Amino acid sequence: MVSTLPSLPHVPGTDPSSCILDAFRTAIAKRISERLPQLTIEQAYSGVDYGKKGVDFTVALPRFRLPGKPDELAKKVLEDFQPDDFISSITHDKQFLHFQLNNTSLIREVLNQIHALTYDSPSGKPSYGTNTSGAGKKIVIEFSSPNIAKSFHVGHLRSTIIGAFLVNLYRTCGWDVTALNYLGDWGTQFGMIASGFEKYGSQEALSKDAIKHLYDVYVSVTKDAEADPNVKVEAAKWFKRMEDGDESALTNWREWRELSIKKYIEEYERLNVSFDRYTGESEVGKEWMDKAVERLDELGLISDVKGAKLVDLEKWKLNKAVLRKADGTSIYLTRDIAGAIERWQKYQFDKMIYVVASQQDLHLAQFFQILKLMEFPWADRLEHVNYGMVLGMSTRKGTAVFLDQIIKEAASVMHEQMKRNEEKYNSVEDPEYVSQEVGITGIKIQDMAAKRINNYTFNWDRMLSFEGDTGPYLQYAHVRLTSMERKNPELLPLPPPAQIDTSSLAESAHARDIATLLGSYPDVVKTALKTQEPSGVVTFAFRLAHAISSAWETLVVKGEQDLEKAKARLWLYLCARDVLGAAMRLLSIRPLERM
């Protein structure tokens, strides 16, 4: 569906074919640059911001630093203004000009664009909200990265949720993304497990749930080690054999790693998360670990303390960091350095992101600084996306150690809630699946609702409530929109967009609010890419859900006598469903159709 708006000059960096609000902003910029000829249309465009409550767009005149008082400049812009297809009114308020858009054009153009890019997009996939700002660029995103044989704790859960969002976000913006899971699959804990497996291990338990069984073995051996210091000595010897490539020490380890990954893939699938590659500390070659130490030694930054190698980063206020233990084994800083070099050789990325908790800020800063000192030209392409802590994550019965315990708990709480409404419960085809999805949505939304860096307290009641800004509320909003087609079969199939008369919607403040929000979605995606924050997308989804919820009473479809009005309203709701669904998928949530 081609826009019916008059043509406008092109402003670099805008694309009205994927974000129709760009056209309205350009029309405002055109008006300003024509009236204030000292400004180019690009300069004027950069001053067009979203307005505060009830105002579409606002321009703060002082930001242009033009000669003359704001009042005089405003007067020039306002002179003999006539409403047109883009702008219905301009009001002057002190240093500001407020612009209201033409309701009829706005609603028609937004709905047309959503429909065209959802059902007739050039790629064949729904593409409303996507852009090509990252076309031709490569990014590697490392996230989740649990330790094999240790619990998948809450920090890993946050990294998984935020990382999955970033993968979707960068893909939505045209980047070529490689999602990496860098497993903690190396280190002295494997020496502990290997030496304890003979005593506590069971093949049957291992093949049933490798993650849990290896963890249990590790806990038992660690207890032994408290009573007998020899256990740790044996474990260290065992790990040394692994580092030296002793095949007999590596056979079991390989099997444990493989079975653990298999189990993790299942758990990630439930979370709607997938990786392009599972790698791990074990895959990092020794060559670059040695080279890193040599290079830093040449630069005079290495000191030897009781046989251990330390790198001095005091000059950059980053303390001293251990690169190699006294017994010659590597530690994870050395492995991170070597791993980054190997990834550069493999992927030649434009950017590489590590999604790691803020407790590791110092470690990441040391690691990035060392790569800069080694004079790698790509060292400044690395970025740490950090996040705060989750407090009090446990099941209702007590401490949760494993991801699957938390998912099961969320699903069972939701299942109980669903059973309370017997009639609705009976109409759901697969209540187990639905309760699990709603539970996972609750966990994810609670995690992404505030800025990443904030700590938050995990709260089951709050998280799984249908009241307020929660995951279940978003799923409910999507389900209700999806049910509109089922409830109004007599209006289907809707005629093509060109034959739907949307003029009646222009009279409704509710329809206008919904359309304005829908039109802003491509901007929400661009802002999220700048900030790398999921919270903006979550806020958008809630604002949209609230706007729809307050429209149900007045913008009625079922029972509306005027069929033209009913069709236009149904189309508005279906476009809202498509955009809400797109925002949820961007957040790695699977939108439900019934619940």
In short:
This protein has helices at residues 21-35, 41-46, 70-78, 103-119, 154-172, 188-200, 203-208, 210-227, 230-243, 247-270, 286-298, 332-347, 361-373, 403-419, 422-427, 431-448, 460-463, 471-487, 509-531, 535-549, 563-586; strands spanning 48-50, 57-60, 87-93, 96-101, 138-142, 176-183, 277-280, 302-305, 308-312, 320-324, 351-355, 382-385, 390-391, 394-395, 398-399, 456-457. The protein is an alpha/beta fold.
Supply database-style keywords:
Isoleucyl-tRNA Synthetase, Domain 1; protein biosynthesis; five-stranded parallel β-sheet; alpha/beta; 21 helices; single chain; 52% helix; 595 residues; 11% strand; ATP binding; globular; four-stranded antiparallel β-sheet; Gyrase A, domain 2; arginine-tRNA ligase activity; ATP-binding
CATH architecture assignment name of the domain at 403-587? Orthogonal Bundle
Proportion of helical residues = 40-55%
CATH class of the domain at 403-587: Mainly Alpha
Q: How large, in whole angstroms, is the Cα Rg?
A: 29 Å
Whole-number average pLDDT?
A: 93
Task: Please give the number of β-strands.
Answer: 16
Shape: globular
SS content category? alpha/beta
Number of helical regions = 21
**Assigned CATH superfamily of the domain at 403-587:** Isoleucyl-tRNA Synthetase, Domain 1
Which strand order does the major sheet show?
7-6-5-11-12
Percentage of residues in DSSP E strands:
5-15%
Largest sheet: 5 strands, parallel
Low-confidence stretches: none
CATH topology title of the domain at 403-587? Isoleucyl-tRNA Synthetase, Domain 1
Keywords: Aminoacyl-tRNA synthetase, ATP-binding, Ligase, Nucleotide-binding, Protein biosynthesis
GO molecular function: arginine-tRNA ligase activity; ATP binding
Pfam families: DALR_1, tRNA-synt_1d
Catalytic activity: tRNA(Arg) + L-arginine + ATP = L-arginyl-tRNA(Arg) + AMP + diphosphate
